[in-house]
């Protein structure tokens, strides 16, 4: 037999993700639209329908989801059991993983190949137990999203956009790309919206359902760490995302 | 143990290779251990032996010989080109543990000894790779 070199993590990562019925990356090519907020809030709201919800912060360079969740990375001890176990939150209904748990909450200066390796390592060693995985992603459409899609092709992306023209234009490009690859886009969540903004989103982003239109919440950063309040605030808006997910 | 997860990945790779090639018996499994990840070779070997027993029973997979090879870690600065071997022993235990889980986080904790940049590449000895023959 011909000798061949193999990276065993690829198979392990693929196996780890195969336990999920739904893998939902929260995407936007434009920064500052609230992806991390929506990803966090959605994972909390989903706990109404799923016994355990898994949340992965895949922003490798500058992860922030743990800040919204109020996690003090310095006080945590990662548990091991034939891999690493995600952190349990929200009465153990939410499980969470982020590279921030290993970096002392510092910026992680990595280039593409190193980002891919870090992602593969996280996906290979994290032992999830949920049925739905929400993935917070960095702005753009680069290593983080493409590596996830390489390992798990059956994803249902949720696109976040504001009604700012640059955000709408960026979201429109993303829809075009994902559609051309036959990817089942779950829908669009409008963020920081005003009353009549649904029609703007519908006009610019045709062909994909506008599932929710969430108003701007002034002083939201003061709620970081108050996950019960975040859950209550977003429940009414994101319940529709849960309903749509159930139909897929 | 992280080593158990790595052993699971190796077994999965063997199972897929067996399926692709239509063979169950392998002459040699070479496991290359990069210094940076600080994998405990004895624990990995134990985990592999245990999982191989299960793989033999369930899939008929047999490996005649397992060989370990260690690879030194080498870093190269992308800014000034300096190439060096970092001394890992001087790092805090918590930092070493973080690097053990995700070797790339070394970029957070060390910088180029010549120019101070964090923009460097891991050009050797990162983690684990296997050769199946």
Automatic annotation (TrEMBL), chain B:
Q: Which UniProt keywords apply?
A: Metal-binding, Nickel, Zinc
Molecular function terms, GO-annotated: nickel cation binding; zinc ion binding
| Record carries keyword Endoplasmic reticulum | no
Point out the coiled-coil segments of this chain. none
GO BP, sorted A to Z: protein maturation
Signal peptide residue numbers: none
Instruction: Quote the InterPro entries the UniProt record gives.
Output: HypA/HybF
Which PANTHER family does this UniProt record tie to the protein?
HYDROGENASE MATURATION FACTOR HYPA
The record, for NCBIfam families, names:
PRK03824.1
Q: What is this protein called?
A: Hydrogenase nickel incorporation protein HypA
What is the scientific name of the source organism?
Ignisphaera aggregans
